[in-house]
Design a protein that fits this description.
- With 311 residues, this protein is an alpha/beta fold.
- It has two domains: 202 residues, 5'-nuclease (Rossmann fold); 67 residues, DNA polymerase, domain 1, CATH 1.10.150.20.
- Helices cover 50% and strands 9% of the residues.
- The longest helix is centred in the N-terminal third of the chain and has 25 residues.
- It is globular.
Amino acid sequence: MKTMIIDCNYLSYQAFYTMRDLDHDGVPSGVVFGFLNRLLYLGHQFRSNRFALCWDSRKSYRRMEYSEYKSHRREHTDDELATYSILWEQMDELKYHILQEIGFNNIFEQWGIEADDLMAWIAERVPDSVIVTSDEDLFQCLTEETEIFNPSSKKSWTKRSFEIEYGIHPKDWWRVKAIGGCSSDNVKGVAGVGEKKAIQWITRKMNPDTKTFEKIEAAIEAGLIDRNESLVRLPHPATKDLDICEDDFDIEGLKFVAQRYGMNSFIEGPQFKRWEDLFAGDFQVVEDRSASARHERKQTTNKIRDRRRKR
């Protein structure tokens, strides 16, 4: 079985944006429901029950090194903060209580370290793994034994498909980010240089007589690339060793959580059978795309719409 290395912050935000209005007796539950539902889907998608669940720390070594790092993500209005607090509270519930109650043992978080670093550390040491994320920074972790799956696009990346697309080895991807910058993390690279030109320089296909070549060389001399390396290369040097062990799934724990959050669909009918099969590692049936599964999703969507109309 593959080990699924999960970007839990990404999965939580994805659940929040699709199910934020779902609640049980006035208690928000959309992130909890959406997150667990996605784990169930991924387990059957990859026919595995081996999970490594990685979370971002709210403190960041990289921000300490470079104050502009992800600074654009920290700017929120009061209304946005109130909205996101609903997300953050459910993330804490998942991380510190719910997942443990269900029997997930590999729940990882380190002070100052991002989920990306934890995922990269695990991918280096656990063969036959799949990183579940939409973050392209993780491309640098692709190997013959490690692939990436983006749940948003449903696209998988292998070392081979990456090399065909970009013409470089995955291990050089951090150099592309260090030279061209990373807009999603607000890391400034060489002015006017993007991924394509950075790849041209790395692969020695850039004319050394061009101004772009001169700018990259000057940036290296000035130490820009060295500064960016610790911001974009994975894992961060401060990442500590992790202990990875077997999960201890508990169907009674799942029932307890489901009842507490009003997620009765998890413990009734075909969905409950899928949870039982996941815990047992029984994947004889391919991912359920039956009428009952479609009906389940439709019911959830209708509940959310009804709540919105009442408001």
